[in-house]
Amino acid sequence: MTPTQQRIRMVRHHLKNLPRWAVPERFAIRWYEAGDMEAWLQTHAVADLYNETSAKLYRGQFGDDENVLAARQAFLCDPTGRPVGTATAWFDDDYHGERYGRLHWVAIEPRYQGRGLSKPLTAAVCRRLVELGHDRAYLTTSTLRIPAVKLYLSFGFEPEILDTEDERKWKSIRKMLVP
């Protein structure tokens, strides 16, 4: 993370009544296939201005069990079938001492941003969390990702405020959320 951005967390205390957004015509969502680490890396290389990604980071975040990845990692594909976005229905068996699903590493290539494509991708990943037995979820993002924060709020995620530092961060973010 760069010094100007700060990590924040958001939580959805239940995964009931998830919003539904249809995938736009000619786009598709598919799940991980062998070799998709490269597609994930390429998507994040152009979409994520704040984090440096690498094969080592990917393996550290997700491991290398392709059966787990096939169940949990989604790719949004353009009309030619090329992945242009990704998000993962990950998990944390010890988040504040409890089991949580995790909306993890959401990214859309810049030329596809602003088209509402993250909504169906997020919806698919959250539905997958439910299918995999999760009843609540959390995510981490940064204070610089205001469009993402707006998406997550609209999706029912709430700020997780555990201390005065979290309060300070969210007070600053709320000022940027006002249209």
Description:
The protein is α+β, with helices and mostly antiparallel strands and 179 residues long. The protein has one domain (7-177): Gcn5-related N-acetyltransferase (GNAT) (Aminopeptidase, 3-Layer(aba) Sandwich), CATH 3.40.630. The chain has helices at 37-47, 55-62, 66-72, 118-131, 146-154, 164-177, and strands spanning 7-12, 28-31, 73-77, 83-95, 98-108, 137-142, 158-159. A seven-stranded mixed beta sheet has the order 2-3-4-5-6-1-7, sandwiched between helices. A hairpin with a 5-residue loop joins strand 3 (73-77) and strand 4. It is globular. The mean pLDDT is 95.
First and last CA, distance: 26 Å
Shape, principal axes of CA atoms: globular
Runs with pLDDT <50, length 5+? none
The portion of residues assigned to helices is 25-40%
Largest sheet: 7 strands, mixed
Q: What would the average pLDDT be, to the nearest integer?
A: 95
CATH fold assignment: Aminopeptidase
The CATH class: Alpha Beta
Say how many strands there are: 7
How many domains, as an integer?
1
What is the string of helix and strand elements? EEHHHEEEHEHEH
Quickly give the CATH architecture. Answer: 3-Layer(aba) Sandwich
What is the CATH homologous superfamily assignment?
Gcn5-related N-acetyltransferase (GNAT)
Strand content: 25-35%
Q: Which radius of gyration do the C-alpha atoms yield?
A: 16 Å
Count of runs of 4 or more consecutive helical residues = 6
Strand line-up of the largest beta sheet? 2-3-4-5-6-1-7
Structural class: alpha+beta
